[in-house]
């Protein structure tokens, strides 16, 4: 994969109007007329749009193409919430056209054109499973729409391998999240897990880390659409802690993760 460096500077933040509002235009009644009488039925409110680490995101570009990645985490700055994913998922030079919309897998809005413009992309480096110490930056973020209820304290995932029995096994149940932690040498040999929207929760040992440039190589399977997946470790507080963002690798061998915490100050 070609490695270039493209940085989109953040734009000004807008005040967040209401976190957690339900998408509903108001109560409606349906009249069923039978024999001259009418029965009013209450309307069903629109489903709430929420998101969390491990969610699938659909990325739509200006030329109408769509691709799928995974939400790494939800970050909050001054009362505004942002979705975090891999940089190559939103990098115009790699996807060929500007991103104009980000939505859930079932089509509900997460970010419109203005929300995407309020985020940014950090790309560079050549680290991969065969060059784990080459250095890598693969991080992007976008503002979450006001209609979205963010859940920064949860990680979970589904699986969509095309094999229903396998999907049930790989589905990642909800677990509480603590604060992200940095990449450190003591991670080598420990068991870590990733939550991707396509291959669910897979776990394996850390094979190598670059503590200086904050990358991790782990023996964890992943498939297309898992880019951006959170890599998390168990904490003594009983919570999971995100340490990396899935960048590249192979379905059955090694995968490379860019350190997450090192980039969060850019948001």
Automatic annotation (TrEMBL):
Alphabetized InterPro entries for the sequence: Peptidase_S1_PA, Peptidase_S1_PA_chymotrypsin
Gene3D superfamilies linked: Trypsin-like serine proteases
SUPFAM superfamilies the record matches: Trypsin-like serine proteases (SSF50494)
Protein name: Putative secreted protein
């Amino acid at each position: 994969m070609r490695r270039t460096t493209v940085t989109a500077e953040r734009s000004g933040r807008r005040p967040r109007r209401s976190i957690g509002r339900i998408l509903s235009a108001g109560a409606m009644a349906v009249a069923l007329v039978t024999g001259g009488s009418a029965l009013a039925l209450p309307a069903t409110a629109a489903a709430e749009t929420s998101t969390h680490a491990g969610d699938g995101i659909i990325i739509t570009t200006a030329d109408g193409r769509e691709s799928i990645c995974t939400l790494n985490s939800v970050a909050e700055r001054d009362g505004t919430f942002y979705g975090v994913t891999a940089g190559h998922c939103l990098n115009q030079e790699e996807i060929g056209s500007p991103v104009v919309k980000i939505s859930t897998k079932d089509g509900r809005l997460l970010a419109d054109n203005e929300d995407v413009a309020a985020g940014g992309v950090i790309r560079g480096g050549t680290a991969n499973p065969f060059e784990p110490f080459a250095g890598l930056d693969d991080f992007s973020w976008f503002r979450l729409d006001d209609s979205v209820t963010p859940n920064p304290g949860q990680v979970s995932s589904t699986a969509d391998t095309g094999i229903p029995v396998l999907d049930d096994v790989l589905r990642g149940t909800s677990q509480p999240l603590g604060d992200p932690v940095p990449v450190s040498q003591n991670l080598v040999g420990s068991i870590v897990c990733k939550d991707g929207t396509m291959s669910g929760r897979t776990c394996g040992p850390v094979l190598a880390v670059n503590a200086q440039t904050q990358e991790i190589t782990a023996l964890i399977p992943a498939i297309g659409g898992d880019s951006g997946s959170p890599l998390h470790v168990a904490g003594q507080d009983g919570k999971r802690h995100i340490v990396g963002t899935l960048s590249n690798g192979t379905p059955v061998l090694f995968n490379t993760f860019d350190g997450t915490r090192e980039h969060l100050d850019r948001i």
